[in-house]
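Final report, closing paragraph on structural work. Over the funding period we assembled a curated collection of sequence-structure pairs, and we close with a single example.
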Amino acid sequence: MSTLDSLPPLRAVIATHGLSAKKALGQNFLLDLNLTAKIARMAGDLSGCDVLEVGPGPGGLTRGLLAEGARRVVAVEKDARCLPALAEIAAIYPGQLDVLNADALALDWAAHLTPPIKIVANLPYNVGTELLVRWLTPPVWPPQWQSLTLMFQREVADRIVASPGSKAYGRLAILAQWRCDARIAMTLPPEAFTPAPKVHSAVVHLAALPQPRFAADPAVLERVVAKAFNQRRKMLRAALKGLTPDIEDRIVAAGLAPTDRAEQISIEGFCALARAVAG
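Its predicted structure, as stored:
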């Protein structure tokens, strides 16, 4: 930590470089270095890993990742105003921090990292869910990353870890939990951020499973789940109408009742339904 001690506090960095958070970029900076270090530790042992960080801003979490021994950090920052602040960190950790001034949604991030890879980020609110879905749906599984340790709005975090029967249970829960162990690792109040958002936030940790929990074709499963939750108040036989001519028979073949509703169906049940629809 002695090398990091030479860096100014994050509030001073923001003042020096004029880094007022931009709402259009979904920026809410986390300035407490104790909290950023804690988030870095939640990702587990980083010593042999390359770490992808999206939206580092003034570099609070970046400092934590490097202090926790990350082999290398690739920080993707769209806001060019933040680059000088990140360059100050890179100077203290020569060869260990690469900063890419790019849009994470348009970047082939895997081309810049060497496995094993972990992704750790206080994600910009406006792109967080889309990035998560992309990371959870690679062409092949297991993915190139080992784990995701990500900050979201608490509402999104609740949707990721939700159980059947709850209001938050839906497509995101199935997508995440079908292929990962997912848990909320920490919650944070609005006042932890600058500027303070209107909602609480939470860090979600997702560890990639070697293979999905239950067999299913990903494309078919996504189609079934999307159609079922698009009209979540309807019974399955109505919500899935048009998926196949004999949808009620397929539902029964999957061990489900045509009168069930989407929010009642477990991930195993949806996978069985996907297999019945495909078969």
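The chain has two domains: 4-208, 218-278. Residues 218-230 form the longest helix (13 residues). We thank the funder for supporting this effort.
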